[in-house]
Structures are given as structure tokens and as C-alpha cells.
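S1.2 Input.
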Amino acid sequence: MGTFQQFIDSQKISPAVLLRRSQQLEAHTDEDRTLKRKRATRRRDKDQQQKPYAELGLGKPRSGRGLSEQQLTAAREDKPLSPRVRAKLVRAVNALLTRAGATAVDAKALFGDVPARVGPTVKKAAS
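S1.3 Output.
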């Protein structure tokens, strides 16, 4: 049994509840749709192309995609996960913990010594 599995068992967090909470947290809102539209307009506008998004007050919208069953299964088996998936897991677990009145945890407490998955772009950059 992996570190992540032990943690969710000790906190009595159901995998189905964790998946549902992740879907809720990552779902697009009206604000996210507005941000996506403003960012697309900025890319098309010649005058604003040189300015960074932060200078224009345009944050990043949510992904719109929560965790999948495969990603949760991989986490429970202590397989390496991408940093983006790990962040989604941490957000979902922390949302459930804070709602229950417990303190939030960091990725190290959830995943232990399991390394993050390294994709091909990172390998190319390191070479």
C-alpha cells in the first residue's frame, strides 16, 4: 500500500468523493471563460502582444478538467505522476480536509518519496 493510499485511508476519504471534488474545483466558471476570452483577444491585438498577461491583470483560467480514475489509481499505487496531476490531487484533498476541519497538507505529506513524472520536454531541455 502506497503513501497516498495510507493517507486517504487514515483520513477516511473515499476515492469517489475525491474525484467528484476535483471535478468541482477544476470546472470552468464564468470568470474563467472571461479570462480565456480576454487572453485570446490580447494575443490577437498587435498593441498588447508585447505586454505580459500579469501586466494586463489576466490570470490563468482553470483547466476545466478534474482528475480521472486512471490518475487516482496511479496515485494510490505510488506511480510517478506529472506535477499538474499532483497539484490537482493536493487541491482536492486539501479542500476535503479543510471542509472537515483538519489542516491542509503539502505534496510531500501526500506522496512521500515518490518522484514526479518527468516528461519528454524536460528531458530534452536537460540534455
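S1.4 Remarks. The longest helix spans residues 83-99.
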